[in-house]
């Protein structure tokens, strides 16, 4: 949707073969100036020297000769169409997050992941060939449903469910680091491929990397165990032990028997879903707080990303740099997350990142220090965004984990969809969008102090576990030295593993 610098077409000065310089006499005389003294993008003097709306535009093609924004003139009174086009993908993710999140809890992580991967590939390529605006919007919407919502969120949940507590941090953050690598890859392809249609096809074909997972990926053993499919769950654990060349041998018969007994014991209970996150007080408060954290992280992250379009210089280089600076942020998160804990680190990063959004508005646009502040803010918010994925997976029980992450992701994509429209408020004052993004992040950073700490805690399995977990545990009570509630009752302890194993189930 990017349109780069734009100006009104001036008859007699601009021709199909030659575009006049922006500061040439013919251009300066034909176009009125804004209150800031710059040439207006949307208005021109007519033959009577009265101000009229532009009917045709010229674009700066230094970095790109074609884009949807250029083809459809998504500027001036059609600027809202550009914002809607950007938001349509996020609205798709918003829709898919809850629908596919609940389906993944019901039908399995692998099933939803694989179907989403195939459909992401199809829609990612198809969107390049949409001939007009509204068909483009529809395909973008579907692309969002099965891309970020279906494949990304479900893939993350599956990743977190196949590792124990000691590996959750590095695996979860490494999963997010791939996102930063993707940003750099997007910038690289954009710099190399000028044709916007070919470029989108190349982006869409990256979905081919997901297709082999149909054959090489196993279902989440933790989800299978929670569904009472203990034999399949234990088979996958045994397969993992062999892959890791472990000498440990499982008593499969006993484990399957334990699993079936627990399954029959809970067979009369209704299946859990998104609504269960709001039925009990502790889970409800955690859910609302986490949802707002997702919303705030996303709005600050994408707000800072949109600010890069206002930075001076090669947009592809700037985008690549902003992707690259996220890597040290993730490395720092991995190092400190198991030292300071999830809560303290996320609060700190959100508060500083939000402050960066606000401070950037007080500095001259395009200045070196302003650029540095935006990049630093992006670094801090990227770190907190990585933590919220891990944190959410650890806060909520297995039976609703994918639903919880789907709900959180829905809130994040809602803010992502709103971000382009909030950016339109710069028509009233250029500072309004960034201040809005920053204040929301700061408020959320404060509220995060009331979430329980999950570091070195076993992941809850049932709704009862989720309700007990972290009652009364806030940053303030921790500073006072008060003990947090255990996740599990004494008669229902579950050691941290891919599936609940006890010592009697192992043969050495």
From TrEMBL:
Major facilitator superfamily (MFS) profile domain residues: 1-456
Subcellular location: Membrane
Positions of transmembrane segments: 80-100, 112-130, 136-158, 170-192, 198-216, 287-304, 316-337, 344-363, 369-392, 404-425, 431-451
Stored Pfam families: Sugar_tr
Record keywords: Membrane, Transmembrane, Transmembrane helix
Stored PANTHER family: SOLUTE CARRIER FAMILY 22 MEMBER
Annotated protein name in UniProt: Major facilitator superfamily (MFS) profile domain-containing protein
PROSITE patterns per UniProt: MFS (PS50850), SUGAR_TRANSPORT_1 (PS00216)
GO MF annotations, alphabetized: transmembrane transporter activity
Matches recorded under InterPro entries: MFS_dom, MFS_sugar_transport-like, MFS_trans_sf, Sugar_transporter_CS
Highest rank taxon of the organism: Eukaryota
One Gene Ontology term, aspect cellular component: membrane
Record-linked SUPFAM superfamilies: MFS general substrate transporter
Membrane topology term: Multi-pass membrane protein
Location (main, coarse): membrane
UniProt entry tagged with the keyword Transmembrane helix: yes
Membrane found in the keyword field: yes
């Amino acid at each position: 949707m990017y349109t780069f610098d734009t100006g009104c077409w001036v008859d007699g000065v601009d021709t199909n073969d030659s575009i006049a310089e922006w500061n040439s006499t013919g251009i300066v005389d034909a176009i009125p100036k804004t209150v800031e003294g710059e040439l207006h993008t949307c208005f021109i003097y007519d033959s009577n020297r009265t101000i009229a709306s532009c009917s045709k535009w010229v674009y700066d093609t230094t970095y790109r000769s074609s884009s949807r924004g250029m083809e459809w003139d998504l500027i001036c009174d059609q600027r809202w169409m550009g914002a809607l086009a950007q938001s349509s993908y996020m609205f798709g993710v918003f829709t898919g997050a809850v629908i596919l999140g609940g389906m993944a809890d019901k039908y399995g992580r692998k099933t939803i992941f694989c179907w989403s991967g195939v459909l992401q590939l199809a829609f990612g390529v198809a969107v390049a060939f949409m001939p007009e605006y509204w068909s483009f919007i529809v395909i973008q919407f579907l692309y969002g449903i099965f891309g970020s919502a279906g494949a990304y969120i479900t893939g993350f949940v599956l990743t977190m469910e196949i590792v124990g507590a000691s590996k959750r941090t590095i695996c979860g953050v490494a999963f997010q680091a791939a996102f930063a690598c993707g940003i750099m890859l997007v910038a690289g392809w954009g710099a190399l491929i000028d044709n916007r249609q070919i470029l989108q096809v190349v982006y869409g074909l990256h979905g081919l990397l997901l297709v082999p997972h149909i054959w090489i990926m196993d279902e989440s053993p933790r989800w299978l165990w929670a569904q009472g499919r203990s034999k399949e769950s234990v088979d996958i654990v045994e397969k993992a032990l062999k892959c890791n060349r472990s000498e440990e041998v499982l008593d499969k018969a006993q484990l399957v028997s334990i699993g079936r007994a627990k399954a029959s014991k809970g067979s009369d209970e209704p299946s859990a879903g998104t609504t269960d996150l709001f039925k009990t007080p502790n889970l409800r408060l955690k859910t609302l707080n986490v949802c707002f954290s997702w919303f705030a992280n996303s709005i600050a992250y994408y707000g800072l990303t949109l600010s890069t379009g206002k930075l001076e210089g090669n947009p592809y280089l700037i985008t690549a740099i902003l992707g690259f600076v996220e890597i040290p942020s993730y490395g720092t998160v991995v190092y400190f997350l198991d030292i300071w804990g999830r809560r303290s680190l996320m609060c700190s990063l959100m508060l500083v990142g939000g402050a960066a959004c606000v401070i950037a508005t007080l500095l001259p646009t395009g200045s070196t220090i302003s650029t540095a502040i935006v990049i630093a803010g992006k670094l801090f918010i990227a770190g907190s965004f990585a933590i919220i994925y891990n944190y959410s997976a650890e806060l909520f029980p297995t039976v609703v984990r994918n639903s919880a992450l789907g709900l959180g992701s829905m809130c994040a994509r809602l803010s992502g969809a709103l971000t382009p429209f909030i950016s339109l408020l710069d028509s009233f004052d250029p500072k309004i969008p960034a201040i809005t993004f920053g204040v929301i992040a700061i408020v959320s950073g404060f509220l995060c102090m009331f979430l329980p700490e999950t570091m070195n805690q076993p992941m809850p399995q049932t709704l009862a576990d989720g309700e007990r977990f972290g009652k009364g545990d806030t940053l303030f009570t921790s500073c006072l030295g008060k003990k947090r509630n255990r996740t599990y009752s004494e008669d229902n302890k579950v050691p941290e593993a891919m599936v609940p194993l006890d010592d009697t189930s192992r043969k050495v």
